[in-house]
């Protein structure tokens, strides 16, 4: 399991949410409260949109809680759209390319979950990547494959939520073919720098936690509320996704599983 | 706080105690049970005596629990005298030179504890190092200074326990001069490759935990027993140190605080 | 390009060849003389056989020339069969899993060369890996794929040189299909811990340099002689491979390209 | 030896000088032309002023040429006052705290040079640091001590060039006392975020190279010109320092060695 946060709103220093708040993401790296492992020390990453078309990425292997570079970059960089993630590895090696968020072109993605029986379906999942996205793969995680598969659907014209639904539906089909009993759990965030989609779904209805806070000029989404006692946080419902877009109220909608996948 | 273990006996693969046992040191790096912080993820180190006069050292910054190099080296290397340590940093930066164990010539040392008010006495403590040991300093931790001060005493002819006592007595004096209220706590291991000394002392009588197990051909000392349910572990008494030497039964003795220091 | 060395003979400390000699591999990491880039600073690795069935691996990202862990491990570990490699990356990310040598079971491999147009054939090359070896892949280099493809051939019963020839023949075929103009160059070492095979081949007859020295109880193979002025080094001929086996004189033989591949 | 650059002018993306130009600092990390070692692979650092009172710092151990974080941060961050440095270590360990630039409060410093016989005077040099600056020390390099000594002089009221001159004069005196024959060489940059001072001095008149380019809205200072063929670069004279301040023409002046130090 991992912990993450996503922000969209008035530009703020990343440190506000990543390092400084009471239960900031850095605090969650050592003291996560709502997941099986309190420690998320297998690398971290931040990704942010600034003046460029593509996001900046800073990912490293050390625990977030003691990384002076992370702290300094977060103190200096201000952004109106950013992601941050602390990782608890589940099998794949600790390398920068395996740290979240992942970026491709202007898109960015991060994930907290699992593909049950991944070893049994990895090969078919990777084979499903169109050439462009096969070559774009830099690490070896399941999360990066899901991201690239979704991008391939988007490139074909699907709206992002449907692209993600198609990706998860396909993944579930492979899992069924391989007689995998373990669950597919997908709590994740995806953005093109303008619209932010955050998902909280699982085929066993036990997705990892996800909350959001909507305040004037600032929507924050996080695995766990970054301040305590704030009643401005609400849970993203299980089986739902939210859409965050500037100038529009955040919407909550059921995740568009294809009927076939839901039936499964 | 940190966790550590020391071994003296028939040569065994380091993995036996470092990685493989039920509550191995690697397990303690993520799930320490007897200290304030369960996570000891700010680097690790192993030091071992083989065919050379000086010990080998392998220290790195990543958490021990996911380090494939640590695992592989521990699988291959066999030694009859070794140390292993996982670190939870308390202020100084995470760097290899700040990871335990420390080595100088044939001596090796590791520490789990604190010098209360270190910032206030650091300067005087470092100034007390004779030239040879001042130059030998590679990192910036308080632990390394204590090690080098004790070596300086040993170089003058003191038996190691008295050298350590003189070092801690001097440290306490500086703390008193600086009106430091916090405690000096010193749970540590020191060896020249032949005799192993392990200390468990604190000026507030709350030293970090330390256990030892004496079995035929194998003495193991550890912050926490590395297997559970074993009744062969006994606590090192507070205010005591043990001496482990080949062919001799392990002895437990009161730590030889100088009267002046004890009075303090 | 990279630099590497392989040793088989009486057990010696790794430092003898890796760190201590006049033009040791660590020296070559900063001052390589016979390749385009003098600097091989994108990680390093050592792999050695000791008392276990599988080799030990120690690979890291920092330049070899300043890595104190490498130096200490090489000072302590003695082996009669080991590999060492310093890397100059050519496109793939710097990560431990991309450092040579690679190990799988009791086999170990390292490579200095290139697959021309790798991006264009990567997908088909990886798809050719049988399941067991597809899952064994840990990094993202072309070298690791070649290793695993050769192991798959060996698993089918091929002698190692023929397995390597089949792998390279297949790779050349894919390159031809993809109209790749760049060369396939393969200077490499492969061992199961008992027999050592070292290859120096390229489809454009410009393979990277490779030398060997056969002395009583010690065969050393290296990208560049590790001592200078020694007349005991001879070049491995282009298009040849050598076989090093205990109790047998080293043999030099033409690389068994399949006729089809040679014609290409 | 090392290579560095400093910029003051209209805010530009750091990548312009650090990564993108023909002979950018990243290029110099692998192909330095005007120093003994072409390779500067022992870590790197950037420091920049943005919206905060204190500069941001990002320093890491890997070679600059392959660091994806460095590249991404430099692509996103825009600053009108920044430093960048690539290190070739000369004795001290490779750690983040030993990488340049160093920062303290709003001050920032980087150095390319050497204190001859440093081991012989280190102790007296460090002892000369007032408490505040003694405690601020985070690494173990000679460069950081010079920086902190100069800051201590500035804190007493000295203008920065005089503070640096006093520091170097004192250092030279210690070297003379210790009968050091080797040279003191100091090519360095110091700034408080507003005024930039760059020094090129050595007691043997062989300081490391330093150039500057003054163009409308942009002053760049660099160990080696970052573009080739540009005739807008001029060497900083030996024994001189330059002062760069917004809205004022850059001035070149003789370094204010104290008479005593010059006489030496």
From TrEMBL, chains A, B, C, D:
Record protein name field: Predicted glutamine amidotransferase
Residue stretches making up the Glutamine amidotransferase type-2 domain: 2-247
SUPFAM superfamilies: N-terminal nucleophile aminohydrolases (Ntn hydrolases) (SSF56235)
Domain of life: Bacteria
Alphabetic keyword roster: Glutamine amidotransferase
Keyword Cytoplasm appears in the UniProt entry: no
The keyword Glycosyltransferase appears for this protein: no
Protein source organism: Chelatococcus sambhunathii
A Pfam family annotated for this UniProt entry: GATase_4
């Amino acid at each position: 399991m991992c912990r993450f946060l996503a922000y969209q709103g008035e530009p703020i220093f990343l440190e506000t949410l990543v390092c400084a708040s009471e239960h900031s993401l850095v605090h969650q790296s050592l003291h996560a409260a709502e997941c099986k492992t309190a420690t998320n020390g297998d690398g971290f990453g931040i990704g942010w949109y600034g003046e460029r078309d593509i996001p900046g990425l800073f990912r490293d292997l050390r625990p977030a809680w003691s990384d002076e570079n992370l702290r300094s970059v977060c103190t200096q960089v201000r952004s109106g759209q950013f992601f941050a993630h602390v990782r608890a590895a589940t099998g794949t090696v600790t390398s920068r390319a395996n740290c979240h968020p992942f970026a491709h072109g202007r898109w960015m993605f991060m994930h907290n979950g699992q593909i049950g029986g991944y070893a049994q379906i990895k090969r078919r999942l990777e084979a499903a990547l169109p050439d462009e996205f096969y070559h774009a793969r830099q690490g070896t995680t399941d999360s990066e494959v899901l991201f690239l598969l979704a991008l391939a659907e988007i490139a074909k014209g699907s709206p992002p939520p449907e692209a993600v639904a198609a990706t998860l539906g396909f993944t579930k089909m492979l899992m069924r073919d391989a007689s995998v009993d373990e669950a597919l759990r997908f709590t994740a965030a995806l953005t093109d720098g303008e619209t932010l989609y955050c998902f909280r779904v699982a085929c066993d209805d036990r997705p990892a936690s996800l909350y959001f806070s909507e305040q004037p000029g600032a929507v924050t989404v996080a695995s766990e509320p970054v301040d305590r006692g704030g009643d401005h946080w609400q849970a993203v419902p299980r089986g739902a996704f939210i859409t965050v877009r500037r100038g529009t109220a955040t919407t909550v909608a059921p995740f568009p599983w294809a009927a076939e996948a839901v039936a499964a």
